[in-house]
Amino acid sequence: MTENDRLGVGMVGYSFMGAAHSQAWRTVGRVFDTRVQPVMAALCGRRADNTAAAAERLGWAAVETDWEKLIERRDVALVDICTPGDTHPEIAIAALEAGKHVLCEKPLANSVAEASAMTDAARRARERGVRSMVGFNYRRVPALALARRMVADGRIGTIRHVRAQYLQDFIVDPESPMMWRLDRERAGSGALGDIGAHIVDLTRFVTGQNITGVSGMTQTFVPERPLDDGSGSYGEVTVDDAAAFIARLDGGGMATFEATRFATGRKNAMRLELNGSAGSLAFDFESMNELLFHDHTEDESTAGFRRILATEPDHPYMQAWWPPGHGLGYEHTFTHQMRDLLEAVGTDGDPEPSFADGLAVQHVLAAVEHSSSNQSVWTEVPRQNEL
Amino acid sequence: MTENDRLGVGMVGYSFMGAAHSQAWRTVGRVFDTRVQPVMAALCGRRADNTAAAAERLGWAAVETDWEKLIERRDVALVDICTPGDTHPEIAIAALEAGKHVLCEKPLANSVAEASAMTDAARRARERGVRSMVGFNYRRVPALALARRMVADGRIGTIRHVRAQYLQDFIVDPESPMMWRLDRERAGSGALGDIGAHIVDLTRFVTGQNITGVSGMTQTFVPERPLDDGSGSYGEVTVDDAAAFIARLDGGGMATFEATRFATGRKNAMRLELNGSAGSLAFDFESMNELLFHDHTEDESTAGFRRILATEPDHPYMQAWWPPGHGLGYEHTFTHQMRDLLEAVGTDGDPEPSFADGLAVQHVLAAVEHSSSNQSVWTEVPRQNEL
Amino acid sequence: MTENDRLGVGMVGYSFMGAAHSQAWRTVGRVFDTRVQPVMAALCGRRADNTAAAAERLGWAAVETDWEKLIERRDVALVDICTPGDTHPEIAIAALEAGKHVLCEKPLANSVAEASAMTDAARRARERGVRSMVGFNYRRVPALALARRMVADGRIGTIRHVRAQYLQDFIVDPESPMMWRLDRERAGSGALGDIGAHIVDLTRFVTGQNITGVSGMTQTFVPERPLDDGSGSYGEVTVDDAAAFIARLDGGGMATFEATRFATGRKNAMRLELNGSAGSLAFDFESMNELLFHDHTEDESTAGFRRILATEPDHPYMQAWWPPGHGLGYEHTFTHQMRDLLEAVGTDGDPEPSFADGLAVQHVLAAVEHSSSNQSVWTEVPRQNEL
Amino acid sequence: MTENDRLGVGMVGYSFMGAAHSQAWRTVGRVFDTRVQPVMAALCGRRADNTAAAAERLGWAAVETDWEKLIERRDVALVDICTPGDTHPEIAIAALEAGKHVLCEKPLANSVAEASAMTDAARRARERGVRSMVGFNYRRVPALALARRMVADGRIGTIRHVRAQYLQDFIVDPESPMMWRLDRERAGSGALGDIGAHIVDLTRFVTGQNITGVSGMTQTFVPERPLDDGSGSYGEVTVDDAAAFIARLDGGGMATFEATRFATGRKNAMRLELNGSAGSLAFDFESMNELLFHDHTEDESTAGFRRILATEPDHPYMQAWWPPGHGLGYEHTFTHQMRDLLEAVGTDGDPEPSFADGLAVQHVLAAVEHSSSNQSVWTEVPRQNEL
Questions:
Q1: Burial profile D56-86: b = 16 or more Cβ within 10 angstroms, e = fewer
Q2: Count of pairs with CB atoms under 8 A, one residue in B, one in C
Q3: Is the dihedral of CA B64, B68, B74, B77 positive or negative?
Q4: Residues of A in contact with B242 (CB under 8 A)
Q5: If DSSP codes are grouped into helix, strand and coil, which group holds residue B97?
Q6: Which CATH number does D3-137 carry?
Q7: Can you tell me the distance from the alpha carbon of B268 to that of B271, in angstroms, rounded to the nearest whole number?
Q8: Do the chains contact at B269 and C325, CB–CB below 8 Å?
Q9: CB B134, CB B106: distance < 8 Å
Q10: Domain named Gfo/Idh/MocA-like oxidoreductase N-terminal: which ranges (chains A, B, C, D) (predicted)?
Q11: Would the CB atoms of D263 and C276 count as touching at under 8 Å?
Q12: Is pLDDT at A305 greater than 70 in this prediction?
């Protein structure tokens, strides 16, 4: 391996997403044959002491407290953005303009305008060989990558129905404290943008189709929550607690979507079911190593939903891991994401999902919010030129 | 048992529903201690020979070919209507005016106007002690009756979400023939009225709440189908193949509904999930003896969705049947329905679901159709005075 | 239908099994096209008043208090024995000798000697056209009859493993009272003969093979239980609470068996899994309408256990019932049993399972008891000449 | 962190187990707060070139081709043995005598005599502060560690039944090639020692009880397999393809065990079910993030097996990982194993499972083989003095 095969990574943010990304950066080159080996060059956070402790813990070689400095570092060739959505545009655009590859956590931004600007920056940077990717990690669940492959192979025929749900319950308790994810300024929206974005992206990924229009509604069940500052006072929740919408796909199918943090007992139930003219597929992240498949071309006397354990060597990403039946976990989605990004960087390819994909999701979220604010009226989603 | 304890039943129609009702009428008095014993007096059908054969097969003592004659019979005290929806109003109203109790299959009628007229007739008849009931048989699945009891007992707290689906796949094949259920004149609507009606009724039944408004869409995937007359020509499908809508409940919760005959591989997946502030419930008719329950008041380290086998003696209707773990089947829902109807007749009570309940469902279906035809705009459901 | 097409049935016993059989006799001719129509002629019990009440409730035309009188009745052509096992030999042999067809509940008898005598009587009667059947009703679960068909069709290849369990929990509580099922004199054995007999029979039925030898153990966890007579005194439990054994099949496969009434939370979990060289099948009675099938000849990337809903028209017995996805319940196994018995009687065929099948099961149970009493030493099961 | 807080690790072997252990050594200190930080000092293999490539890939700093040299290295304080079972005794005893801590993969050895000698060596070394552990990694599945905690807390009461199965299917095809795992000289036994050992250990771990006696049988379905040398000739399979045995626990319960590589369609179905007087637990590694629990102290009308997602912060090992519902994978069991080992080394504690635990398992396996060779006669397992 030559020096040219190494890629210095600088990461901004080190909480939940930062920890997951770190585990992935540490692991990817040990498990996959990537053309490029990542080097965990520097971690950036606002407070020097906390950032230094995190860097030692997570395995980053250096520390920065100013993201502009991080971008300037000569040993950083790729910037990994793990901060809340309101900071994404500024950091991503600056990094791209500085010629650094960018991996940006989802949702790409908090508005269509911002996402659009970022996508423009990504397009300009691409002309100079600079790569960008938005972090819809669930595309890298082997069972879901397998689902996409099966759809592309025609195994379920023409898609009639998509049934997508992302169900969590972590703020069911009204005394659960206020946090940045419940603040529109920081997070853009609530369940809609945080988890609804994932099922919109997955629908596009697995079906290979676009959403053409929506009719939606949102709701905030608990409008105030205790502040975490010990003051005893309450802060206003300015985002949705739950969102639901119906939609149409450009292939002629119908879809229903639901994203909520109030589905009591559902911890991370990201579910996707597709019904086609030749078969069906179903998935639930709470059983992430399984894909259900019904083959409608079989004799009806022995047909039924089969449970594919997506752990065979032939399944996406699995050749690098363990024998059949030895499942993977949540963090592997990030390791696979890094693998695909490194592969694209190493081969001058375009990593997916692109910022344009992130923008397409943002358009859908914006349409849902528009419909929800206008008597649920049908709202068309602007056609995306390139995906 | 005196002669007064016997109740002569006359049934109109003898295909799928008629066979199911016959099995229930034969069984109910042998299994349950009903105050009134049904007597299978007469079966009514249009063709004398076929009707006679059906009557012998199904166990009816006499035959009529004119439903007006059936109503006039002195040995018929209750008329059981198992014909397509377009015939319900005329038969039901005539029977009620003749002082005969009425059990009418769902949906109550093909329009709000008809359902309204029937409900008025039922109210007038009730003043004379004549009983009426609409046949939403799924209310009598023990697991669903248990769900209602648990909701009423506060086991899941304030309801935040209802997720209702009725998924079938019996006309996925575009060469599957034309039939009356696909003809708006006979059936009123397609998946919406046939199976969507069930999940609307069940939502009202289990939650004890009304639906206040909807935003919906419908679709016909296969617009023409071969006629069953051997002519080789095609008939137009004039109803929806699938319907989806979002809704709100008067208790403040959100709901999503989906009814389709194109969910490949789903045979009779009538599913209902409720998420409340204190717990959740989930049901799928394909596993009709099971109710899933998550108790959010438990310690989180041992909490989880439990699978209640709804076969314990304490569960609704189960005392009369078999030991725990020995499940029931589809037709038992009708046996239980007849048991509750006979109990109401025998005690001068009001059987449920009433025609007013049937009308309430019809209002929801009409609102969905209105919304679907008007850019999915939010459409309020008229408030029901009595339920 | 002529008088000759009618078959008078006389039943002995009217508790749990009697109620289930009555429901089946009432239903079978209404649902299936049987050549012979059963007539519920007379019910026999020891106490006249209770028996009369049961007869009215369950639909029997007459009452007897002496089983010998029942056998003598001219309107009784078939005797259905639903009493505890210690009474089976005397009644069954007398009925057969009187030229009456016999349906005898399982286990056939409480010992090999008795079962052998009954089988001899059945062979002699057969020469005179008299039919006999032992009531292993679970053979008539559609999913299990489908499993047998698939094994016979070679869908799972050479059988390597059978994994059979019958798990119940109804006497886990040590204060649950003494009853006849816990008395060796009446019941022969405990879990072994009551429920273990079913999984031995099903193994023979589904695989088409015999068990050649066993090594077993049994245990009584609660040796004394309160008498139900209000005396406050305790009675000795003289049967096993649980039994487990390993076995070999004459086709070269291995098998494990377990029968227990102490599997807390398992209500009626009769489970059977077969692993063959070309596939596998799995079943659990708690989900009785489902059969799991793994086809090992499929491409491994889409292979997996599929859940067949055994409710298709092509599935055994299902043509007569409801549309796909509309499941059956426990009592249907008896209706199907009566259908097959009537078919055999009507066509001069040999109904299955025969008394010889019942004897074969008894030989296995005896071998398990012998092994359990002799340090679990391997115990061969005598070869059955005819099955 | 001082130099003393670092612990040099030397690993022998780098195939399947070596890769899994490497991933764990790389990860453990980044995720858990261990008192001691592992340093991946040296990897040992027979061929220099292959070992060097593996070391670079897996992240080991140096390479050895002689395990005695590895033990001598001053930068190696702990030896991790990932080779086939026949090499365990020599390496482990030498390492212990040299004062190096030892982690030895399971099974501890290929015979009781060897395991006994290793346990003696471990006891002697322990007096000098040298630690040893056998690698039964499945003890570190959070759901199984939770099961043990719940049993210890009395949540299922007195254990009546253990039902343990380890089902795989990777050599169902008779043309699947010969390998060291099928050679008695190298592997000791087949399914029995390879996977049966795990369920024996887990039974001891979760119940806290010993197995007192067994009756067993084993079988080799495919006695010859093609050699992997391209010669076209076949090698003899000298181990069992499958083993089954019944057993008793010193707490009075019964147990059934089955280990096979011929359970077609079961990829890594390590299943454990426990039925106790107060409840039941069930687990299947194919759904490794789930534990099923039935609480028999609940009201029977709402009781049922609940699915605990073992991903809550309060669950064993989970505080260090992701939010609820974000599951772990196979390799995490090794990371947790390393965490517990490092904790023991750092606190002068005794890591579990000890070599004595490994010996106890070996005694059970030997008893099964003895019984299998002697007409399945009941065979007592020697009492273990210390565990």
A1: ebbbbebbbeebeebbebeebbbbbbbbbbb
A2: 90
A3: positive
A4: 160-161, 254
A5: helix
A6: 3.40.50.720
A7: 9
A8: yes
A9: yes
A10: 8-127
A11: no
A12: yes
The pLDDT tens digits of the residues spanning B253-302 come to: 999 999 999 999 999 999 999 999 999 999 999 999 999 999 999 999 99
CA distance C251 to chain D (A): 12
Q: What is the ipTM of this complex?
A: 0.96
CB spacing of D264 vs C217 below 8 angstroms: no
Cα A200 to Cα A259: distance, rounded to the nearest angstrom = 10
What are the domain boundaries of chain B? 3-138, 141-380
DSSP code at position D171: T
Does residue D76 have a pLDDT over 50?
yes
Which amino acid is it at B98?
A
CATH 3.40.50.300 describes domain B141-380 = no
| Percentage of chain D modeled with pLDDT above 70 | 98
**Cα A48 → chain centroid:** 29
Q: Inspect the interface and report whether the beta carbons of C293 and A300 lie closer than 8 Å.
A: no
Which CATH code for domain A3-138? 3.40.50.720
**CA-CA-CA-CA torsion for D349, D30, D205, D131, nearest 10 degrees?**
-30
> Which of 138-177 (A) contact C at CB < 8 A?
146, 150, 155
Q: What is the separation, in whole angstroms, between the first and last Cα of chain B?
A: 34
Output the CATH code of domain C141-328+354-379.
3.30.360.10
Closest by alpha carbon to D215, among B167, C371, C309?
A: C371
What CA–CA distances, in Å, run from D21 to A311, A332, D60? 19, 17, 12
What is d(CA B193, CA A237) in angstroms, rounded to the nearest whole number? 39
Does C3-137 match C141-328+354-379 in CATH topology? no
User: Which residues of chain C are within 8 Å of residue D246 when distances are taken between CB atoms?
Assistant: 215-217, 244-246, 376
Interstrand relation of B78-81 and B6-12 (parallel, antiparallel or unpaired): parallel
- The two tokens of residue D299 are 């009201």
Average pLDDT over residues A24-35: 94
| Alpha carbons C22 and C338: distance in angstroms, whole number | 10
Q: Is A277 in Cβ contact with B265 (below 8 Å)?
A: no
C-alpha span between B250 and B254 (Å, rounded): 9
Sequence length of chain D is 387
Do A224 and A235 meet the contact criterion of CB atoms below 8 Å apart?
Answer: yes
Closest to B267 (Cα-Cα) out of A295, C325, A300, C308: C325
Which string of DSSP letters, residue by residue, matches A3-20? GGGEEEEEEE--SHHHHH
Beta strands (DSSP E) in chain A are: 6-12, 37-44, 62-64, 78-81, 101-105, 132-135, 159-167, 211-219, 224-226, 234-236, 242-249, 254-260, 269-276, 279-284, 290-295, 305-309, 379-380
A57, A266, A309 member nearest D267 (Cβ): A309
Percent of the residues in chain C that have a pLDDT greater than 70, as a whole number:
98
- pLDDT score recorded for residue C4: 57
Residue of C nearest to A312 (CA): C301
**Tokens, residue C188:** 């022969």
Please list the pLDDT of chain B residue by residue as tens digits (387 residues). 344 589 999 999 999 999 999 999 999 999 999 889 999 999 999 999 999 999 999 999 999 999 999 999 999 999 999 999 999 999 999 999 999 999 999 999 999 999 999 999 999 999 999 999 999 999 999 999 999 999 999 999 999 999 999 999 999 999 999 999 999 999 889 999 999 999 999 999 999 999 999 999 999 999 999 998 888 899 999 999 999 999 999 999 999 999 999 999 999 999 999 999 999 999 999 999 999 999 999 999 999 999 999 999 999 999 999 999 999 999 999 999 999 999 999 999 999 999 999 999 999 999 999 999 999 999 999 986 554
Nearest CA in chain D to B315: D301
> Nearest by CB to D286, which of A325, A330, A332?
A325
